[in-house]
């Protein structure tokens, strides 16, 4: 009944892609797509060392003839004074890159999502950031992080959930090892809780004060919190999720082992449904004797998984379905990047929050949008569509996993942090200073004697340790979006989602006619 000829015909008639910028002249749309393509192409890390079939005429630059000697500086755990681990004094405070040696070596443009850095800092663009604004962010902050002359100091205000603060600070310390001496003096307030809190509506009107700049892992339309890569890029020790670098490699191998076409032709989700209503609503779509919405849904029980040594929860082994569902938890969910890296089509239930990279991904190009008010029927249609258009479905899966492997590789995570902190520091109207009672932190102080979580804390730190100063400069940050370009980009996003809704409605009308 479900694959009746009417529906089959309907599905095969759905075109894969219609330029959604209907109200605009075609040239704008074409230009935009071309621009996006160019930016994406040039920002792709492999660009300079591979020839691509698309622009055969473009001269591909060679690998540098002379290049900087890579310097490895292991942790110095012997710098102990008075039985306390201290920060060694001899880590270099400058470094040389290939670009410094040979100015002909081009500086690669950063991926497109870096341009949101300008948008996130826009509230302070004309006013700058005063000490008063920073101090007001203290109300909810987990810690204050200060960088002065390349050294990091942390003042802690409250306990974080699990090791979120530990691995976030660890990440910033690795950034300092990667680009020593390149980060300006600064002070940031960071909150490690899930949901953004700086409501933009509180900072409107003629008498409004400037909003406090507060860093966290996600944002939404109503708030001004500044988004920063989450702790799990360096590992989530409590649930045995390794640093992102290692996971990317595992998933790449896994994707090679289990081809899309050989995967289960259903939508898969495994997670904790108890954090939010919306996820419990999703569970209603699970396959049973009475219904089949093409969805196979499972509850993740972290406690019992932990007791079994996390054998069932290796994210790299979870790429065995053609479709994988992403649904937000209490806020954005860390699971997002692991799902998108799978080569499967990611079915994203209409999200409310964004992290630092998601905003530059496009529905239908990188993922498939799922309605949040009619999840089951939406899932059913998505999977039927994909199984009918296998080539297109695979392209969507591939676009997302390539994005993860290339644009979201660890080098770019550091570059994102580098540029965000740099741009932020440019706005500071006061001189950062070391707060009283703050401690100097460095990789040695955090890692040399780290213990706990069955050794995973130390293990993940050693695994994600930056070995020494970078031999290349950070990628080049593109200027802010032109208002028109950004508007067109967002319009394209909305139009794609509306287009899918229309196809979906047509699909169900056809099905109900039979
Ligand atoms: C080591 O401890 C002693 C006694 O507490 C103290 O007098 C001395 O200043 C400390 N040295 C350093 C370098 O902190
Ligand atoms: C470790 O640090 C101490 C104190 O800064 C220094 O004296 C020592 O030479 C360092 N060891 C190495 C191997 O760099
Ligand atoms: C702004 O401040 C002025 C002077 O204190 C006051 O008269 C006015 O009502 C305030 N406006 C708003 C919108 O709060
Ligand atoms: C993918 O698998 C093939 C054989 O199945 C192997 O030859 C190749 O090296 C693998 N590639 C990667 C990147 O693992
Ligand atoms: C969903 O259905 C599958 C197959 O019947 C079952 O194994 C699984 O436990 C169900 N999930 C939930 C959350 O009930």
In short:
The protein has helices at residues 5-13, 26-43, 98-101, 116-121, 131-136, 164-178, 244-257, 277-283, 302-307, 335-340, 375-388, 390-407, 410-426, 443-447, 456-464, 483-513, and strands at residues 80-81, 84-85, 143-148, 151-156, 186-190, 215-216, 226-227, 264-271, 295-299, 321-326, 345-349, 368-370, 439-441. With 514 residues, the chain is an alpha/beta fold.
Q: Could you describe the 3D structure shown?
A:
The protein is of the alpha/beta class and 514 residues long. The protein folds into two domains: 77-230 and 410-479, no CATH class; 241-354 and 358-407 and 488-513, Rossmann fold (3-Layer(aba) Sandwich). 36% of the residues lie in helices and 11% in strands. The chain is built from 16 helices and 13 strands. The chain has helices spanning 5-13, 26-43, 98-101, 116-121, 131-136, 164-178, 244-257, 277-283, 302-307, 335-340, 375-388, 390-407, 410-426, 443-447, 456-464, 483-513; strands at 80-81, 84-85, 143-148, 151-156, 186-190, 215-216, 226-227, 264-271, 295-299, 321-326, 345-349, 368-370, 439-441. The strands form four sheets. The chain has a five-stranded parallel β-sheet. Helix 8 (277-283) links the parallel strand 8 and strand 9. The termini are close together. Mean pLDDT is 88; it is low at 16-60. Bound molecules: 2-acetamido-2-deoxy-beta-D-glucopyranose (5 copies). One 2-acetamido-2-deoxy-beta-D-glucopyranose binds at residues 253, 256.
Q: Which ligands, by name, code or SMILES, are bound?
A: 2-acetamido-2-deoxy-beta-D-glucopyranose
> Largest sheet at a glance?
5 strands, parallel
**Strand order, sheet with most strands:** 9-8-10-11-12
Residue windows where pLDDT falls under 50 for at least 5 positions: 16-60
Alpha-beta content class: alpha/beta
SSE string, helices as H and strands as E = HHEEHHHEEHEEEHEHEHEHEEHHHEHHH
Span of the ends, CA to CA? 8 Å
Number of helices: 16
**Rounded radius of gyration (Å):** 24 Å
Beta-strand residue fraction: 5-15%
The helix fraction, in percent, is 25-40%
| Overall number of strands | 13
Compute the average pLDDT.
88
What is the general shape?
Answer: globular
The total number of structural domains is 2
